[in-house]
Structure formats: structure tokens, C-alpha cells
Amino acid sequence: MFIIRWIIEQHIHSIPIEKIIRAFQILWWIIPAVLLNMAVKRFLWLPLEETTGRTVPNLIRFVTASLIYILALFGIIAFVLERPITSLLATSGVVTVIIGLAVQMNLSNIFSGIALNIDRSLRIGDWVKIGAFDDSKVVNMNWRVTQIETRLGYIVSIPNSTVATSEIYNFSYPDNQYWLRCRVPINPKYDPNKVEEILLKAVLSVEEGVVKDFKPFIWLEKFKVEQVSKLVGIYVIFFKTENYQYKFRVLKSVWKNIWISLNQAGIIPTTTPIFEGGDEEKALAADVLTKSQLQEMVVGRSPRLN
User: Fold this and answer.
1) In angstroms, rounded to a whole number, what is the distance separating the alpha carbons of residues 30 and 33?
2) Is 111 a member of any domain?
3) In tens digits, what is the pLDDT along the chain, a chain of 306 residues?
4) Do 83 and 144 belong together in one domain?
5) Number of domains in the chain
6) Bridge partners of residue 180, in order along the sequence
7) Do 246 and 209 form a contact (C-beta atoms < 8 A)?
8) Which CATH number fits the domain that encloses residue 210?
9) What range does the domain containing 145 cover?
10) Within this chain, do residues 57 and 156 fall inside the same structural domain, yes or no?
């Protein structure tokens, strides 16, 4: 101890006190920058990786750390060395603009990917419809793109910035159940109560796909009141099913049961109503489903009763 103290006393006087003070002032900026960078890693990147299950891109880590140390360097130049930093700020501003323009889309996709992973709008394995893209299954998500597999079997890679700004319909969240809707045009001469009973039994008699715990909703959507020969009732059927992957299989089974049940009861769905008269009657015909439109099934998350 005495030897160490003697060495310090002998050499401390040979170092100008101004340099010692300046060294401590520089450390005053460097140490907080190092601690701040460590805090960002510990309290931001690690929780984010645990939440999303993905590694934060090195680009984001590098940009964040560089920003912290550059600010510390500017502080040292301005307050410790007492040098003007106007020219440095101008130069760094130009460099920042150039770099920003070069990586603008990548940064946008990365931050959008972070947002998507935090709010959990999409999960791998979910059946979704993103914007104008076809309904597909999410097969992969990273910080740059979201990859979906269509029903035709091909993979579509969508930039995360596009996903974040598009409407997202998730048919697998919060659970794997969702609502389907189909329309059946029937001549209004038949008793609506009887028709609804037949349709209800037809839907519930489907062996697989239809959730039996939820009673289907059935009502008349359109009803033209003119003459008896011009009346067409459009029955709307909402029923709950599960596993969006088999949507068309379920729709086929439901429509098949509906057609068989109605025919057994002597009720034939109206496919091509006959209208007699002028242009007014022809205009009414345009509002009635044709035979090809009978196969069209419109998908919805839940029924709107209003």
C-alpha cells in the first residue's frame, strides 16, 4: 500500500490538473452512454425478443447504439472541448438524410414488423385476409415481410409496412370459430316458418364443420311486394363453423343439405324468376339472385342483425 501511494504521489504532480479534470469530464459523457446502451439492451430488446420470440435485427441495434454514442460525442465536443458543433451537425444531418433515404423502406418494414408482433394481430398458422390479398394462411413472419400461403398453394411475401396499413380480417382469432353466411331465394308462397324450420334442420344436420352449440340465424333479407308472381324472398342463413381452411367444404355440405331438404319438402329454390312487363319488371329482376349466384357464399365474422 505504501509503495502504491508513493508511486501515485510521485506521478500525480507530473500530470496537469486540467487534463485530469478533462478526462473525468469525458468519462462523464462516455459512462452514461455505455450504461444507457446496456439499459436499452436489457429493458427494451430482451423483453421484446421474449414477447415476439424473434431476435431484434442487428440493424436496429446498431442504429440505436450509434445514435447514443454520437450524441455523447457531440456532448464531449461542445461542453468538454468547447468547440462549435454547427458544422458537425450540418454534416451529420446530410449523412443522416442520405442513410435514411437508403434504408427508409427497410426501417419502415422493421418497425411495422415490431408493431405487428407486439399487438399480435397475426400469428403463424392463422387464416387471414390482408387488404386486397386473397384469404390465406400465415406461414412465416419476420421483421421485413409477412408470408402467406394461398389456397392455390403459392407463397406471397407482403412487406410489413403494407400489412400494418391494411385491413386485417383474422378468422382464427380469438378462437378458431367464425361465421359463414349463405342466401337462398325461395318463392314467398311457402310458409316462412316452415321454410326457416327446414333450413335450420338442414344446416344442423351437416355432420362435420358446423358448430352445433350455436343456433343458426335465419331471416328474410329481401322481399319484393308487388304481385304474387313477382315476389321473391331471400332467406339469409348465418351459421357458426370452425377451421377456416375447410370453408368451402363446409359451404358445399351446407348447400347440399339445404337443396336436398327443400326438394324433399316440395320446395324448389327460385333460380330464375319470370317477370312479365316492361323495364320496371326487368329492373326488379336484377335484384334477385340468379342460378349461378346461388353458389356464392359471403363470409362474415359474425351476423349483423340490423
Assistant:
1) 5
2) no
3) 455 455 555 555 555 677 777 888 888 888 888 999 899 988 888 887 777 677 777 777 887 888 888 888 888 888 888 777 776 666 666 666 666 655 566 777 777 877 887 777 888 899 999 999 999 999 998 878 899 999 989 999 999 989 988 999 999 888 888 888 888 888 888 888 899 999 999 999 998 889 988 889 888 776 655 445 566 788 889 999 988 888 889 988 998 999 999 989 988 777 543 333 334 333 333 333 343 443 443 344 444 434
4) no
5) 3
6) 239, 299
7) yes
8) 3.30.70.100
9) 120-170
10) no
